[in-house]
Amino acid sequence: MGSWTFDRWARVWEMLDDLRLVAQLNRGSKDALRRIYLKYRQDLFTIAVSLVADSHLAEDCLQDVFVRLAESAGTLSIRTNLRGYLASAIVNRARDCLRRDRRQVDCPVDDLQLATRQAGPAGELVQSEQAQQLVEAMGQLPVEQREVFVLHVQGRMTFRQIARLQGVSIRTVHSRYRYAIEKLRQSLPEEDRR
Amino acid sequence: MKTTRDLIQLAGGLHASPSPQADARILGAAEAALDRTFGLGPRPEPLWRIVINNPITKPALAAMILIGVLVLVLVLVRHPAGIPAQSNRPSAPTVVTNLPQEPNRATTTPFNQTEQLAKELALAEQRFSRKDVDGLVDLLETGLDQTKVKVAGYLADLGERQAVPALQRLAWAWTGDPKANPFAQAVARIKPSGLEPNNPLVGQAPAKAPVQPAARRLKIKVVDKATGEPLPGTQVEDGRYVCDANGCCQIDVGDATSWEVWVSAPGYIGTSIEFQLLTEEVLSQTHLLAMDTGTVIGGIVQDVNGMPVEGVIVRILLRPGHDGTTKPFVHVCFEQRTGTSGRWSCDTVPADLLAQVNAGGFDFVIEHADYVSPVACGIPDAYAVSALRDGTYLTTLYEGSTLRGRVINEKGWPMEGARVNSALTGPDGTFVIQHIDPNATKIDLRIDVDGYPPTVRQIDYRPDVPDAEIVLQPGWFLSGRVVDREGKPLADAEIHVVNGPWCHVRRSTDAEGRYFTGPLPVPIGIMNIQVSKAGFMQTFRIVEKPADGPMDFVLHRELHVSGQVLDAQTGRPLDQFRITACLTDPNDKVRWETHPGQAGRYKHTFIHFCETGYAIVIEADGYLPATSRVIEPNERDPVIDLALTVDPNSPADRGTGP
């Protein structure tokens, strides 16, 4: 129970800190903007790299999100939490990037395009051979399943939040998550037992 | 194979950071944007911050808050007898959260309570004279206690059956003399065949309420937010229902446990409301949806010569995240074709478009079959929003370039009648695809022709590209048997082979349980094979390459789990609780679905095969969750009773049984 209480309080404190930062940003504080960036840059960049599989593109997404955050300062009203808000924004930017890549295609081919595109080494993301395999396996997942997996595991968003973001029922999100997990488990070999 | 936990740990441990140069660039761009938004220099401190930081005003503010709390306590202590305090009757929702709140009793001081009562009684009389039943029911649910008694009389005089549920709830909540129960008397006057005031059910817990009608309907009322007037003709659920003259609509929800209602009306912001648990209480209420007036945005679509383009489809979807409560939230779904002037306009978006768009869930696409499309317009910035508001948002469509090619089979023969994306091949196997984005570098082609599997090719594209030649390869076939656990063949089982968006093949087994697919393309990446049959659990298998021999499947019967849900201390059945079905892993549990349960018994049917087993989690307000043992997929209808212990830290009311 102790750790539960601690976790819960940690979340509450994070939320309060975020609300304070948003309030300061709404008054035009550059310091608040900088602190929000430093607090979330790594998480958001990891999500973006996992979704677009290109570190330069991911940096562009991150820049767009923070420029738009700064442009909305003064009118920002974060109703849930800042982490979820920024994660939603980065996902939408990543989708835009993927869609822009896909625009030239005559028919929608979400899954195929990603299946044939090799998820690149993505700069600093790859820390080990296993991580490399995971990134490649994630690149093979259909977009929706990859989004659910990335947002739940790396973005720490709840299924309910993801359901809202994707505009589908929570059951569909569960389903996508389960399929993603199953496919990743199939794709990733067990560690060497030598 | 890795466990789910290993995977999550591995993925959760991945961290990537932008380079220091990128950090500097991103922060620089964001700060410049902040400067543009605000000009230079931060805004002045707000008044509340000045008050809090001042050593004189701070204690004064604290004293005012203390006085406010004391007054509140006084009001609660002086509560009239007869109707119990709000907190003692959770099952009597006299305040409907989705209806506009009249001044609340808890915030009404004794000094202005009389004035408030007089106002409410006058309003009730006025509504009675207008026969405004909805208005009276509103007062019944939100007014002061004396007002409620008076309104009950009025509703009985009007004999309006619509008011019975609200009156019945108040009748149940009455703790005074049953013979003097004004709400039960009103119910009896309206509904002589229903519950009499001296009926033993009156004054007891709602758990013993009369049986609800079989059809489950969600009742909503749509009004104009500014005037409160009903909006007849409002479309609900994309036109499946239309609101009546009172702005009311009943939605058939079948046996669903959650529901999202989406309403749209010209000139109003598209709005949704989400009900995460469709309890009988939720279904018994009428939920108010107040629609705000929309702002008009628009634009012009033209070709490269500056001529307007007619018949362009403009689609806007705006559905930002919301806070998870049952408050209505923005949900715009717009589609329109441009006229001869190439103009389009949409009057259903909110005024704070930019803020809503930044909250996520925005899609804005423009398309026309004779041009390069769809054009994804992305997230508009402040300038684009300004143009949208002026109706001058300009989109230019390009005719694009053309790709020519030929389709032949593995022997080099031209394939006539093959479909290549939207084009068909001629007798010499050639095709022409128009309206390709001149900036495209890669094009995906899908080729469908009888006798060959669907084929997908990605080709590198340049404007001066020579004609593409696509060689079709014969496919591979999948065959095998589907049997039950005892080895008996299963007829009419469905085999669904999925490999990317192109390959969706469905086949059924014959009387011997055998199946055989047509030509399938060689798998790209992972291929998923799902097998299902009514009464059996769906199973799926993932393969990376075509199997050498037959592929057989064993289906397990659906698993029905049931049992009692009890209070661990008293042994009594719990009245209200939630059942969550989980798929287990040796180290993990994945919550699969949740539905409400009642009357001390639960049952759930698992319809997806999970080799590692299942679990049931029961949760109830005020109790610690209880989890079942791991249930094996081959068990036969197990009965598992679960006892919940009281959560010592929860102040919530518990749903104990009678």
Which terms summarize this structure?
heterodimer, A: 194 residues, mainly alpha, Rna Polymerase Sigma Factor, Chain: A, 74% helix, globular, disordered N terminus, B: 658 residues, alpha+beta, Immunoglobulin-like, 6 domains, five-stranded antiparallel beta sheet, four-stranded antiparallel beta sheet, 12 helices, 36 strands, disordered C terminus
Notes on the structure:
The complex is a heterodimer of chains A (194) and B (658). Mean pLDDT of chain A is 71; it is low at 1-7 and 102-127. Chain A is 74% helix and 0% strand. Chain A is mostly helical and 194 residues long. Chain A has helices spanning 2-26, 30-52, 55-72, 82-102, 110-116, 129-139, 143-154, 159-166, 170-187. The N and C termini of chain A lie far apart (40 Å). Chain A has a single domain, classed as RNA polymerase sigma factor, region 2, helix turn helix motif (Rna Polymerase Sigma Factor, Chain: A). Chain B is globular and about 95 Å long. In chain B, helix 5 runs antiparallel to helix 6, helix 7 (145-158) runs parallel beside helix 9 and helix 8 (164-173) packs antiparallel against helix 9 (182-190). The two termini of chain B are 50 Å apart. The relative contact order of chain B is 0.05. Chain B is built from twelve helices and 36 strands. Chain B is of the alpha+beta class and 658 residues long. In chain B, the strands form ten sheets. In chain B, strands 3-2-5-6-10 form a five-stranded antiparallel β-sheet, with no helix packed on it. Mean pLDDT of chain B is 77; it is low at 80-111, 193-213 and 654-658. Chain B folds into six domains: 86-205; 217-291, Immunoglobulin-like, CATH 2.60.40; 295-397, Sandwich (Immunoglobulin-like), CATH 2.60.40.10; 401-471, Sandwich (Immunoglobulin-like); 479-549, Immunoglobulin-like, CATH 2.60.40.10; 559-644, Sandwich (Immunoglobulin-like), CATH 2.60.40. The chains are: A mainly alpha (194), B alpha+beta (658). At the A-B interface, helix 2, helix 3, helix 4, helix 5 and helix 6 of A face helix 1, helix 2, helix 11, strand 14 and strand 20 of B.
